[in-house]
Design a protein that fits this description.
The chain is α/β, with parallel strands linked by helices and 292 residues long. The chain has one domain: 3-Layer(aba) Sandwich (Rossmann fold). Helix content is 45%, strand content 11%. The chain has a 5-stranded parallel β-sheet, sandwiched between helices. The termini are far apart.
Length: 292
Amino acid sequence: MSANSRNVPTTGADESVGSPPKLDKKAYEKRLEELQAQLVEMQQWVRETGARVVIIMEGRDAAGKGSAIKRITQYLNPRYCRVEALPTPTSREQGQWYFQRYVEKLPTAGEIVIFDRSWYNRAGVERVMGFCTTAQYRRFLHQAPVFERMLVEDGIMLRKYWFSVSDDEQIRRFTSRREDPLRQWKLSPMDLQSITRWEDYSRAKDEMFAHTDTVTAPWYTVESEDKKRSRINVINHILESVPWEKVENNPPKIPARPEGDSTYERPPRTEFRYVPDVAGDLEKSRVKAKKK
């Protein structure tokens, strides 16, 4: 264990606290909306002050990272908040310094960047699946804390979250995806390796924490047995850990519409192509059902 690391788990698998009671839907939606409003205010502060924020989302497959990211970014200005989910490196990128393609995605002043998986791919899937050599893996464990310290020293606010889910809940979510045509694309043979290699991924995660859970850039674990709870908790932690302040926002006034030019005549509607109003059929069906 590195000298500057914090306490790290020693178990071979994600520690489970059991399934927590489900959140009340109305209470969840109300609190989520309040937190999302604060995220909008935080982004305004980031823009005004030129701050740079990097948020890393890691965890097992189906741990709830994606849905949490959607709730975080739902109302943020996409011009100043980017989600980066880098694909498999190209042959050119494979010949570069490992961190190089991630450096290109770091934020400039006034930006928030969320990594949906990050440089920690090397300590997880690449390590377990044999996509990197032992030398490359060891070099990563040595360089990652140094790299992150450089980011923080340069003023970047770095937050690292690990979404923790039990094996039973993971299988339940995989099964749900397989049965849902709208989400089957989220299930790949590589994802299913996380079931057959559960303990291998556990050991890789433990070693990753041992080397990279540092005082400068600590890991924060998000219990994700209940996705609603994990979303509320991670958004709340972001808002509490980033030292933002409310910025006075003066939205522009909406001007009065000037009087129209009496010489203008709108062309006949028949000269335009309109999208068919299939939505109107929904109202007709409702009225018809009401009459029965």
